[in-house]
Amino acid sequence: MSSLTDLSMLELAAKLASREVSSVEATRASLERIARVDPKVRAFLRVDEAGALKAAEASDARRTAGSPLSALDGVPVGLKDIFLTQGVETTCASRVLEGFVPPYDATVVRLLKEAGLPLLGKLNMDEFAMGSSNESSAYFPTHNPWDLTRTPGGSSGGSAAAVAAREVFGALGTDTGGSIRQPAALTNTVGLKPTYGRVSRYGVIAFASSLDQPGPMARTVGDTAALLQLIARHDPLDSTSADVETPDCLTGLEDGVRGLKLGVPREYFAEGMDPEVAGTLRASLEELEKLGATLVDVSLPHTKYALATYYLLASSEASSNLARYDGIRYGQRAKDARGLKELYTRTRGEGFGAEVKRRIMLGTYALSAGYYDAYYLRAQKVRTLIREDFTKVFQQVDAIVSPTSPVPAFKLGAKVDDPLSMYLMDVYTLPCNLAGLPGLSVPCGFTQGGLPIGMQLLGRPFDEARLLRIARAFEREHDFFRRAAPV
Amino acid sequence: MALTLEQVRHVATLARLSLTPQEEERYATQLSAVLDAVAELEALDVSQVEPTSHATLASSLLREDVLRPSLPPEAGLANAPAKVGSAFAVPKILE
């Protein structure tokens, strides 16, 4: 039985345009779905029922007047709690920001509002986006709708779980080392990390500023493309925002893969991969070949250094970015501190969770006198080598194909106190962030136990349209998104 | 490389983090393991390699130096844990 919440964003948009369905009906359907399944999934930190319904009513009025603001006017979506929302509490899943009500909207939030999309609320995540399982949320872990005993991945795990559980039609996440793509892979959803600079970071709570990038998460490739169109805008308020045109990702979406050269990096098919993931990926590669693509064996020789490089650079940038949580201007402040220094240390000691403190410590160490050259500067140089690997390969191929995650969704609690094992979850996704490239995860199958598997596509800078086109060619053969999570 | 408890305390001071004795122990062990793992970067000769700070950024961007609206003081102060008039309140800085 199909219900309103099973529709893709573009299917709903068509019904809104023909007036078969109203935005208020769609938004109420989402809110009812949230009320029914979210006590089990726990994707939402807070639901903004009143705000979403008010936006839906305004959308319906525009449709009646024949003046919708965009193709997706009236389609309700959710936001990772890393995006500032004026008047709606934003915590980044941290105790230190509990009660923080932003005085302005992130640029991407403003763009969604200006396009008429009702915003259903704020979605759970790993604290300050540091994690790969949503278990470092200071509030509660989110559960994978495909198996409630397992993680939905992270850090945008709440966004992925809400999309997969049909609680929202789409969502925005952020990706610093795989935080959009890995949870998408673990939940049978599509997630796109745009090229660094493609989407504004203004009003997005900073983790690692040279790596962070917001992006769309949805059930279909078409929805992902449509959401990207709304948020990919040059923004003078973000000095790293690229001054490029908004891409047209929808016109050529159905053009297929015939004639395209797809690189298969041998380093990404090394040991450590789950056999079912490996098998499914190989079958998917054969299928892309049957659809007319040419597979090319390529090498990214510095891949094995990406994890160490990433953890040094991301933690260093985080230790600097998170210095702002000092208990003075916003957020929580330690009670009864004696003097300013104690106020700082106790506010931060009490306000941050274990993983955030671990990364602040690592980053502070890597940047400290006597260690800067050996750790931070060296990692920046290795980053250059990793970036050059991709530049060379993209002279030969149009895109790179790999698994998104080495394993399917793992059990909640399985890796909580083993940071190194948790960091390995991002081994295929984080080189893309170091190189600033666009990356996408698209569903490519299930394990025998029914857990989703994702395929990753990496592209040249600002080549999102081609990645979406390849993903769509694959999706068209399967329609995995029609398969709903058993929740 | 193994971090001593003394080094952990020094880094915590630099980071303005109060840690419990249990946290100091745990971070000494876990950060030592992470540092051992990242030591593999030493295998690469990077003496002739330029560092990358931003992957796609050619140079810093500048904007026109003109006035534009910013947050009104009451909005900027709305989330302050403590305030006095139109200022953030902090504990006494000088003893």
TrEMBL record, chain B:
Q: Give the reaction(s) catalysed.
A: L-aspartyl-tRNA(Asn) + L-glutamine + ATP + H2O = L-asparaginyl-tRNA(Asn) + L-glutamate + ADP + phosphate + 2 H(+); L-glutamyl-tRNA(Gln) + L-glutamine + ATP + H2O = L-glutaminyl-tRNA(Gln) + L-glutamate + ADP + phosphate + H(+)
| Gene3D superfamilies membership | Glu-tRNAGln amidotransferase C subunit, N-terminal domain
E.C. code:
6.3.5.-
Q: Name one GO biological process term.
A: translation
User: Which key words are in the record?
Assistant: ATP-binding, Ligase, Nucleotide-binding, Protein biosynthesis, Transferase
Give the enzyme class.
ligase
GO MF annotation terms:
asparaginyl-tRNA synthase (glutamine-hydrolyzing) activity; ATP binding; glutaminyl-tRNA synthase (glutamine-hydrolyzing) activity; transferase activity
Do you know which InterPro entries this protein is assigned to? Asp/Glu-ADT_sf_sub_c, GatC
Family (UniProt): Belongs to the GatC family.
NCBIfam families recorded: gatC
Assembly behavior: Heterotrimer of A, B and C subunits.
Q: Which PANTHER family match?
A: GLUTAMYL-TRNA(GLN) AMIDOTRANSFERASE SUBUNIT C, MITOCHONDRIAL (PTHR15004)
Annotated function? Allows the formation of correctly charged Asn-tRNA(Asn) or Gln-tRNA(Gln) through the transamidation of misacylated Asp-tRNA(Asn) or Glu-tRNA(Gln) in organisms which lack either or both of asparaginyl-tRNA or glutaminyl-tRNA synthetases. The reaction takes place in the presence of glutamine and ATP through an activated phospho-Asp-tRNA(Asn) or phospho-Glu-tRNA(Gln).
Mind telling me what this protein is named?
Aspartyl/glutamyl-tRNA(Asn/Gln) amidotransferase subunit C
Higher taxonomy: Bacteria, Pseudomonadati, Myxococcota, Myxococcia, Myxococcales
**Gene for this protein?**
gatC
